Amino acid sequence: QDLTPIKDVYQDDFLIGNVVSVEDMQGVRLELLKKHFNAATAGNAMKPDALQRTKGVFTFTDADKLIDKTLAEGLKMHGHTLVWHQQSPAWMNTTEDAGGNTIPLGREEALDNLKTHIKTVVEHFGNKVISWDVVNEAINDNPQTPSDWKASLRQAPWYQAIGADYVEQAFLAAREVLDEHPDWDIRLYYNDYNLDNQNKSKAVYNMVHEINTNYQKNHPGKLLIDGVGMQGHYMVNTNPANVKSSLESFISLGVEVSITELDIQTGSNYQLSEKLAEAQGYLYAQLFKIFREHAANIGRVTIWGLDDGTSWRASTNPLIFDKDLQAKPAYYGVIDPD
Ligand code: XIL
């Protein structure tokens, strides 16, 4: 196939990313990755349970190999993720009571675990990454009072152990490391999904606004949270107008925005009719048109998977290449959104 590289189409706009795992870094999959993409996110290799499954024992070997290979192949690397309620070891923020029930860890111990993990990991990878998802998915699914972002926080273990300021504490810990390395150029992101939901995006807006405003009292003109990542796990009937309105609201915060995990569930049971494939292609096109119109404020658009066969939601055919790595209408929507 003599396809136009996606990264060439958007070279003046933003980075074009995809997910990487060790298996992707060879053969035809590596060729496809290198041809179209110039940025990468580790699908699992840099998550808390991969890096510090046991307290105090950091296991960097696999992630290091993956990152070094990715960089050697010419792609930039984004760090994902430092603080999350999934794929994180229980010891970080929970313990057991006398009856063997899981309960939240005390605030001080949990804070210490949070900060140690963040500082060690950020320091270790250093300038090999261009950005970090410092906190992932802290806001709940459909906030009823988005004006009160603290009431909109997910009842996650970190929240239960530390309280609402765990988000700010996480960014402060990461920022502290970066302040010690003025030569590093790394953006700190808050990342979440379903931000086309206007209630959820308002809660995120209010959270980032308040945390950055607080920080600026002592650090005039500086940001604590540099960016908002809109994951973008969409459905074929997602309304692009909602994506646009959230995107514009985040841009108005003065932060960089990235689309961090784009895929569009279409069809089911691994079946995709021609009609739905076209609809999917049209939505990819509409979204990329919006992204391009806001390119000045977008750092990166990352698609969450190389092909439908290896997608985390493979049965819903969400990606731009099919399981045989052939371009779908979605690919053509991406390269020619107008
Ligand atoms: C997914 C990975 O793609 C899967 O391989 C893994 O089994 C589960 O996690 N939001 C995120 C990503 O921030 O880390 C998730 O990735 C998808 C949802």
TrEMBL record:
<feature type="domain" description="GH10">
    <location>
        <begin position="1"/>
        <end position="337"/>
    </location>
</feature>
<protein>
    <recommendedName>
        <fullName>Beta-xylanase</fullName>
    </recommendedName>
</protein>
<feature type="active site" description="Nucleophile">
    <location>
        <position position="261"/>
    </location>
</feature>
<comment type="similarity">
    <text>Belongs to the glycosyl hydrolase 10 (cellulase F) family.</text>
</comment>
